[in-house]
Amino acid sequence: MSIIDQRQSVRKFNGTPVEAKKVERLIKAGMAAPSSKNKQPFAFIAIDEEGLIAEFSKAHPNWAGLSTANKLIVACGDKSKDGRDAQMLMAVAAAIQNILLRAVEEGLGAVWVGMYPDGVRMGYASEKLGLPGHIVPVAIIAVGYNENTRPKIREFDPTSIRYNGWGQ
Questions:
Q1: Is 108 helix (H, G, I), strand (E, B) or coil?
Q2: Looking at the predicted structure, is the pLDDT value of residue 104 above 90?
Q3: pLDDT at residue 103, as a whole number
């Protein structure tokens, strides 16, 4: 089974510490993502302080699940590298997907928690992390060792495919 087939969103972690080298490899995978004109308009903030993880988990109702993560990675866009919002966001999204796939290879669980375009969540992260104006927080990736594994629910849906146009 490939890592694509194995990847699933993990929202509950068992508390086992994630090694710093694994987090570095996750971020390295993110940096290998494609980007328009290879501008690589992404930046990452690794969070390993328990208190800061707890603060993030309490900052927004949708972030409560962050509380059991051992590490967080805040994936950001860097407007100084590419000021085109769409291209920057696509590059960051590709980087996040690479991180999620590398997490599977590393035996870790991870989940992509959205932030962009919610101004409240983005503002909180920007202020809490002291982000300069050209850095745009896009998402948080919670990382840890799975508390439990469950069968993957997502199934292949051939009705989502069209050939040579919509009505064909």
A1: coil
A2: yes
A3: 96
